[in-house]
């Protein structure tokens, strides 16, 4: 590994840093964006049951809110259950925007890394080309410097692509997962609105 880093030259350190950040973000998002943490199974049914049995008080709503991102959205609607349907939906949408912002955390950074990594590889390639041209002198080419320049160019190109591909795949995957979560969250929120306004809620 150290011999590869040495052969790749100093530009490779930027790609190594980018790869470390990419791996850290992929691990963090993989742990955070788990369905059971975002959309706990049975939560809507539990909230509906508590609402129908008139067991929802301020403490219980607070527990729902702290339980998960879905709970935050549902709790926003429960706090406005005696308002109009539009007011309940507006409160849920506002909470949903905050939840969406949290779920999308670090995704722009991951997308940026997917875009920047090939450019960093290209930068290393250019540095390698400079080394290659610098190997030429009046006596001919310096084989050592020529080989070093080629190594810099090739290793940085390969590393740049190697960082960009998983970063892009992860970004697209997490982006799709977040969109699916938000869509289902919206559907469950609308179902709760129907329950609230269909059972004892005053218009």
UniProtKB/TrEMBL annotation:
Residue limits of the MotA/TolQ/ExbB proton channel domain? 67-186
Name the Gene Ontology biological process terms.
protein import
InterPro entries per the UniProt record, alphabetical: ExbB/TolQ_transport, MotA_ExbB_proton_chnl
Instruction: List the record's Gene Ontology CC terms alphabetically.
Output: plasma membrane
Q: Does the keyword Transmembrane helix apply?
A: yes
List keywords of the entry alphabetically: Cell membrane, Membrane, Protein transport, Transmembrane, Transmembrane helix, Transport
Membrane topology term reads:
Multi-pass membrane protein
TM segment ranges? 6-27, 106-130, 150-171
Its domain of life reads Bacteria
Q: Where in the cell is it found?
A: Cell membrane; Membrane
Q: Which family does it belong to?
A: Belongs to the exbB/tolQ family.
Protein name per its UniProtKB record? MotA/TolQ/ExbB proton channel family protein
Q: Which organism is it from?
A: Lautropia dentalis
């Amino acid at each position: 590994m150290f011999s590869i880093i040495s052969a790749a030259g100093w530009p490779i350190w930027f790609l190594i840093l980018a790869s470390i950040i990419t791996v850290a973000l992929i691990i963090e998002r993989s742990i955070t964006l788990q369905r059971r943490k975002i959309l706990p199974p049975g939560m809507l049914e539990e909230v509906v049951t508590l609402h129908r049995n008139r067991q929802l008080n301020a403490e219980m709503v607070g527990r729902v809110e702290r339980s998960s991102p879905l709970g935050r959205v549902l709790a926003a609607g429960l706090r406005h259950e005696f308002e109009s349907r539009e007011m309940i939906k507006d409160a849920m949408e506002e909470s949903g925007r905050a939840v969406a912002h949290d779920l999308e955390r670090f995704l722009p950074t991951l997308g940026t890394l997917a875009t920047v990594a090939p450019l960093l590889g290209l930068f290393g390639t250019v540095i390698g080309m400079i080394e290659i041209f610098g190997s030429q002198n009046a006596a001919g080419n310096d084989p050592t410097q020529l080989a070093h320049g080629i190594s810099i160019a090739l290793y940085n190109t390969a590393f740049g692509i190697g960082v960009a591909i998983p970063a892009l795949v992860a970004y697209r995957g997490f982006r799709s997962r977040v969109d699916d979560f938000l869509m289902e969250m919206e559907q469950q929120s609308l179902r709760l609105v129907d329950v609230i306004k269909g059972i004892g809620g005053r218009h």
